[in-house]
Design goal:
alpha/beta; globular
């Protein structure tokens, strides 16, 4: 069995694959001061909840954009799972050729999502990840990662409203009943959701216009579920895209994709 791990700025998500089947997933908040024992015990709890023993784990593969916790997390894996984790980075065979100005600065999560989308749904494909930041990444039909756009995530935008404007309160991020709002809460919700839908649709259209080609549009990330339902320009929403990408890359770098 394979443990796949995505370490993001807000959350750490873990999944377990038995062959090509995802058995379950688990989510932790990303905290910088957890010890290796805290990480290790959390992983063991996750395995136990899915009736999986340590002896059944063959490997662990990790994509991380938070370098500060990697020492503790990796040591937790070594100590509790007795495995040396595979880390997505330079030298790892991903099946995606990064053709940007600075390939080494591209986040591991974006490469993993690119692999997941391309090898699951084909190319050309535009991958939208609604995470802490929202990323729009274009992978051409020949597996090359060519272009990317980074925007503030919807939660960052929401926090900016209630932390920078003294009279605006913290709100639930959801679509209001109408754009015709008569109170502060629904007005903020409308600005966030309808405004973000506008951003998403405009950027998708600009990619298609600039490249003069059609493409499949795949969304992932926590709030992607909300926005996917509000536009016809996103073809599908896949909450497990990062897990799929990690599994695909693992199979490529270990020769299991032959």
């Amino acid at each position: 069995m394979l443990v796949v791990v995505d370490i993001g700025n807000t959350n750490i998500t873990l999944g377990i694959y038995d062959g090509d089947t995802l058995l379950g997933s688990f989510r932790l908040t990303t905290k910088l001061k957890r010890t290796s024992d805290e990480f290790g015990s959390s992983i063991l709890s996750f395995l136990s909840a899915n009736q999986v023993t340590i002896d059944e784990i063959d490997d662990v593969i990790i994509a991380s954009v938070v370098p500060k916790i990697m020492h503790s997390f990796n040591n937790g894996v070594r100590k509790y799972l007795k495995k040396e984790p595979i880390i997505i980075g330079p030298g790892i065979r991903t099946g995606i050729s990064v053709q940007t100005d600075s390939p080494r600065t591209l986040g591991a999560d974006r490469i993993v999502d690119a692999a997941g989308a391309y090898y699951t749904y084909g190319g050309p494909v535009l991958v939208i990840d609604f995470g802490t930041a929202t990323t729009y990444d274009y992978i051409a039909a020949d597996t090359t990662f060519q272009y990317g756009v980074i925007a503030p995530g919807i939660e960052i935008s929401a926090q900016a409203l209630w932390t920078q404007a003294a009279k605006l309160q913290e709100i639930e991020i959801k679509k209001p009943r109408s754009i015709l709002c008569k109170n502060t809460v629904s007005s903020m919700q409308a600005g966030l959701i309808f405004g973000y839908i506008g951003q998403v649709e405009y950027i998708i259209k600009e990619f298609k216009r600039a490249l003069k080609t059609d493409m499949k549009v795949v969304a992932t990330g926590g709030l992607g579920r909300i926005l996917y339902k509000e536009t016809d320009l996103i073809d599908l929403y896949d909450p497990d895209l990062t897990f799929k990408g990690l599994k695909i890359i693992y199979d490529k770098c270990t020769g299991n994709d032959r």
